[in-house]
Design brief:
Blueprint (H helix, E strand, L loop, with lengths): L2 H31 L2 E5 L4 E6 L6 E5 L3 E9 L2 E13 L8 H10 L7 E12 L2 E10 L2 E13 L5 E10 L9 E2 L4 E2 L3 E11 L1
Antiparallel strand pairs: 1-4, 1-12, 2-3, 2-12, 4-5, 5-6, 6-7, 7-8, 8-9, 9-12, 10-11
């Protein structure tokens, strides 16, 4: 075989190798970025912090259900397609039974037993997820903006942590009072959440 022919063959072989490498890399990246379904897993938590004219108070739950479709490129979150979760109102509990019963009554737990959130849209920048979704409390649904930080856990699951201030009155909830009105609960509360997502 002539030298020119060998050189030409070698160059073509190199080009083919480069094209194949690029093609396989593109396929691998595309596959890793396809949205996969995750479930809300144990380790998730919703905490509600509030204030009153006498002392602060809080309630929390670790019992909830839901799912999400998220896309990852390697270990990096690239997109959140869907995210839905819910919990029973009576799952939210504080340290005092009186607080629990008054809060559940204020949230009309017997008539509207579920608190639910459904993501409408989201963008991901680095490990920060910003979106908007529909939050339903006491039978009232409002669209709210949300933001969270995505963290990969040692067990391969993904956690999204964030917080959001809301006003109870926006959901038709009358902030409960105690001791014939001597203790008055403030309208604004802070909701902190950790959503642990696992395949």
């Amino acid at each position: 075989m002539k030298t020119a022919t060998i050189t030409h063959f070698t160059k073509n072989l190199q080009k083919t190798f480069v094209l194949l490498t690029f093609a396989f890399s593109t396929v691998a990246f595309t596959q890793s970025s396809i949205a996969q379904t995750y479930k809300i897993a144990p380790g998730s938590e919703i905490k509600v912090d509030g204030t009153s004219n006498i002392h602060d108070w809080n309630m929390k739950t670790t019992t909830m259900s839901g799912d999400a479709q998220v896309a990852l490129a390697g270990k990096n979150l690239t997109d959140v397609k869907t995210l839905n979760f819910s919990t029973a109102v009576k799952n939210l509990k504080g340290k005092e039974d009186l607080l629990n019963s008054r809060a559940h009554k204020a949230m009309k737990a017997d008539k509207f037993p579920t608190i639910a959130f459904k993501l409408n849209s989201a963008t991901v920048s680095g490990d920060i997820v910003k979106g908007s979704g529909s939050l339903t409390i006491a039978g009232v649904t409002k669209e709210i903006a949300v933001q969270g930080k995505a963290v990969e856990n040692a067990d391969g699951s993904l956690s999204i942590n964030g917080s959001r201030k809301i006003k109870m009155s926006e959901y038709g909830i009358q902030p409960p009072s105690f001791m014939l009105g001597a203790l008055k609960v403030a309208d604004e509360i802070n909701v902190t959440y950790t959503l642990k997502l696992k395949k």
